[in-house]
Amino acid sequence: MDKILLSHGSGGTMMHQLIKEYFVPQFSLKSLDDSAVLEGINGGKIAFTTDSYVVSPIFFPGGNIGELAVNGTVNDLSMVGARPLYITAGLILEEGFSIEDLKTILSSMSAAAEYSGIKIVAGDTKVVDKGKADGIFINTSGIGIIEEGIDISPSKVTPGDKVILSGPIGNHGISIIAERNGISFNPPILSDTAPLNSLVNDMLKTTKEIHAMRDPTRGGLATSLKEIAIASRTCITIRENSIPVPEGVKGACELLGFDPLYVANEGILIAIVKADMAELLINTMKKHPLGGNACVIGDVKEDPSEMVLLKTSIGGTRIIEMLSGDQLPRIC
Amino acid sequence: MVTKNLVDKIKKTMDAIGRPVNLMEVCGTHTVAIFRHGIRDIIPKNIRLLSGPGCPVCVTPIKDVDAAIAISKQDNVILSTFGDMMRVPGSKQSLYHAHADGADIRVVYSPIDALNIASAQLEKKIVFFATGFETTSPSVAGTLIEGKRLGVDNFFIYSAHKTVPPALKALLDSDDVMVNGFILPGHVSTIIGSEPYKFIASDYRIPSVITGFDAEDILLGINMILDQIATGRAEVEIQYKKVVKEKGNQKAMSILNEYFESCDAQWRGLGIIPKSGLKLNERAKRWDVNSIYNIDVPDSREPKSCLCGQVLRGVKLPTDCVLFGKNCTPEHPVGACMVSTEGSCAAFYRYSPRGYRGYNG
Q1: Is it true that the peptide bond before A187 is cis, omega within 30 degrees of 0?
Q2: What is the reported pLDDT for B1?
Q3: In B, residues 293-352, which contact A (CB 8 Å cutoff)?
Q4: Which of A79, A119, A274, B113 is the most exposed place for a label (fewest CB within 10 A)?
């Protein structure tokens, strides 16, 4: 590898290789979870994370880059069981960017922060020459507190656990692709961007026996499950029939040659939980606006380790790998 | 339930046949669908499913990729391409690498998108890297008709289009191919119909069925082929009747014929096959990128040890290749069959990797 290719940013295997080979040796990364969990600061546990947003187009059906940047970091903190408190925002603006668009983006950042009950407490702005960025890039970093007794990490996943999915897959990725290519759907497919902290809060009030959580963003459900299977050295088996895929997403995927399991989401979560807590959790989740379609999609086994298997609707078995390269459209 | 009945039927027909059969799914979309549905798991083990030469990315020779890269590096050019072509290794680099080097390469979902880029950027030459079978070539011809109507004169085509029936004939004429029946492509046949395949039955006495892409479609298609074998028939049947007609889509074919004519073409792994490609005809000369550039890239060899060629002919399985899963992965593909999402090596790697479940065809 002598140059960075676009597919190094797709969230799949190429990005994992890049991180493992070049980042891990240089940084103090204890895990590759959504947030770092820091202990020993004033006695408690703190979650800390950062994420950059370069989505194109910046306005898409169901949201814009601003709320995505807030929700995304809130979600990364929530996935380790933290209560998100504060975030910072770093903006890189391209010369010539519309002030009107900037105002819209900032006000939706503010609205998203208020909605999820966090505060944006520090920021930075840089402007680069025209052509050196694509309108606007946003970085957000965030911290949150992990209450005592909460310990969420793939290493806790054990055979027998159940896999819960909070809602339908594929909406965010398809809304972006559709907007990018001038494809419209009726009814329109909207991004599912949403803050998951209040749903996670309700879940943790129900039980602390949540072993791992992920919000399946880039690389989709498939990649997130594979990451958990590798980190926990278990086998995750899921059932195709149980995974909710909206009709519109299904149709768009057929048209574009995508597999919905690999399409990005921004407002759903996967939780791996102790088996006897699954039903209770589903009941809690169903009462929350973001968990209305929550369901068990599979379970955790011991062997074959580090694998994800999908039971197809006709009773066959298929292996689920991480996304490799970009999800590209078929040409025949 | 329907599935179970179908599988039971297939088992019964196989019992009647009483020997193993090799079926080739010609189309890459079928290869992927068979894996995605887990069809190999539920049909009898003595049905061997082989992938054929029906993934357009896989059969595009290195020379065409090199030519597209050379074009993308000309001044004032925007090269537009279907996304799958981006990662196909040329002799030195892929379009992805050329893009990282600064070439203006745009991924489009339809040739009309490329034409739209041309109308928006009159100061540039927009070249569309036209790959694909009969499913995509009529839309390229249609785009030229639209381009003519709009008076766009900065839009050009590099045609690497191919047609399916001549490749099947070449396959059947080679000595090492052992196919007892063909699962014929649903999408391509929507355009060309069933008639161009008649020679498979009349000249080679091999059964074939044009098949759809749902699990049930594929199981039905398989059973229809097996039924022909069991009863000693050889016909071209249509399972995918809801979209495929015997005569195909004549309007699409006449649009195609407006600007394209057949030519000999090189296929990765299969060599030069007579009358198996499409080039722009005299009427369409002004769109031909060869009319503005003299693109002369040297012939190049297939990478050493790569079995793509034999995989594309169904002679070898991807897992027979020493490079498979080691030196050749979707992230670092050596051969084109590992690149396309519909390539047989990529499908094997993705859905049944590294020998797990002891897959043996």
Answers
A1: yes
A2: 65
A3: 329-331, 340-342, 349-352
A4: A119
* Strand bridging mode B21-27 / B181-184: parallel
Nearest CA in chain A to B343: A330
Chain A to chain B Cβ contacts (< 8 Å): 120
Q: Which of A5, A259, A324 lies closest to B330 in CB terms?
A: A324
Is residue A269 scored above 70 in pLDDT? yes
From B84's Cα to the closest Cα of chain A, the distance in A is 6
Considering the domain B1-301 in this protein, what is its CATH number? 3.40.50.11740
User: CATH topology for A154-320?
Assistant: Phosphoribosyl-aminoimidazole Synthetase; Chain A, domain 2 (3.90.650)
pLDDT in tens, B285-318: 999 999 999 888 888 888 888 998 889 888 888 9
- In angstroms, rounded to a whole number, what is the distance separating the alpha carbons of residues A9 and A308? 23
- Please state which of the ranges A47-56, A252-261, A311-320, B270-279 shows the lowest mean pLDDT: A252-261
pLDDT of residue A330: 44
Domain map of chain A by residue range?
A: 31-146, 154-320
B28/A324 touch (CB, cutoff 8 Å), yes or no: no
Q: How far apart are the first and last CA of chain B?
A: 26
Q: Please list the helix, strand and coil fractions of chain B in percent, rounded to the nearest 5, in that order.
A: 45, 20, 35
- Hey, what's the torsion of the CAs at A294, A297, A303, A304, to 10 degrees? -120
- Convert B126-165 to b/e letters by CB count within 10 Å (16 or more is b): bbbbbbbbbbbbbbbbbbbebbbeeebebbbbbbbbbbbb
Selection from B295, B338, B318 nearest residue B65 by Cα: B295
Query: With 90 as the cut, is the pLDDT of residue A32 above it?
Result: no
- Please tell me the CATH code under which domain A31-146 is placed: 3.30.1330.10
